Amino acid sequence: MTSLRQRMVEDMQIRDLAVGTQQVYVRQVSLFARHFHKSPELLGPEQIRSYQIHLTNEKKLDTNTIIVAMSALRFLYKITLKRNWSLDEAIPAPKKPRKLPVILSPEEVLHFLNCVASRKHRAILTTCYAAGLRVSEAIALTPPAIDSQRMVIRVEQGKGRNDRYVMLSPKLLEILRAWWRVEKPKDWLFPGDLPGGHITPEAVRWECRKAQRICQIRKPIRPHSLRHAFAVHLLEQGTDVRKIQLLLGHRSLATTAQYLHVATSKVCSTSSPLDLLPRPVSMEVKPTPIPTF
Is 227 a catalytic residue? Predict the structure, then answer.
């Protein structure tokens, strides 16, 4: 490990960046350095611009991947190398397209969950939907986190390393109790194949893909789709956006408010102006008279 990489890792550790973020940033800076066969200390705004064009036009990477690469370079040059640049000019980031999630209906959620063959994976995915958890949060639950006295679930060190409480559905409690009686998990509510560890997100995603093939729902379905459905279904029931923000663990209310764009009872309940016309539009096409003069 070079001294520059070591210092960047230490800078990220000091700022308490997630381990996954640290690994991604180090990899992106390494790819940047290898592209020019030089240390990043010897490179500047012109090389960064050239590299971004390379990622866009030659590698044809998606916008999100390029944004991550530029974020890594921003951290390196601003924090570790302390370059006094205008970052917006030296390391511009492409505009991130706003894509709305495709939402499963309650009937589709039920049908999908019933198609999950494994008892463990069905319990995990049901927990994602019932409590709005990320898959990484669901698999990291411990038996004591299920508080049946207060009817809450304690989510420890979720995204952003924050703890929070979410509701414990009575129906979910029955499912988790049935799972516990059969499997008797100890350290983790959903243990993995390796002793002492919990199940991996990849294993859950694999079972999710298998269940989608069985249920034949054409909408894209991932574990995170159930978290999206949780938020939108609550909105459509009239739950306050601020409450949903707290349940989801979003830092910004604006992130949660994006679900308003896909809550059909909120967006699509307004009558179309077509329905307000005094008469229906006729689909009969009259022939155009031929001019005689």
Answer: yes
Please tell me the distance from the alpha carbon of residue 66 to that of residue 28, in angstroms, as a whole number: 10
Tokens of 155: 């989510």
How many angstroms separate the CA atoms of 21 and 25, rounded? 6
259 tagged catalytic? yes
Whether 224 is catalytic: yes
195/43 Cα distance (integer angstroms) = 46
Region for 132 from its dihedrals, namely left if φ exceeds 0, alpha if ψ lies in -120 to 50, beta otherwise: left
pLDDT (tens digit, 0 to 9) for every residue of the chain, 293 residues total?
689 999 999 999 999 888 889 999 999 999 999 999 999 999 999 999 999 999 999 999 989 899 999 999 999 999 999 999 888 888 888 887 778 889 999 999 999 999 999 999 999 999 999 999 999 999 999 999 999 999 999 998 777 678 999 999 999 999 999 999 988 988 999 999 888 899 999 999 999 999 999 999 999 999 999 999 999 999 888 888 899 999 998 888 888 888 887 776 665 666 678 777 888 887 787 777 777 66
DSSP 3-state assignment of 253?
helix
* 159 in catalytic set: yes
Q: How far apart are CA 100 and CA 12, in angstroms?
A: 31
Question: Cβ(155)–Cβ(249) under 8 Å?
Answer: yes
Distance (Å, whole) CA 58 – CA 285: 51
| Residue 280 CB-half CA count within 13 A | 3
pTM for the model: 0.75
Q: How many Å separate Cα 240 from the centre of its chain?
A: 21
Residue among 74, 122, 134, 228 flagged as catalytic: 134
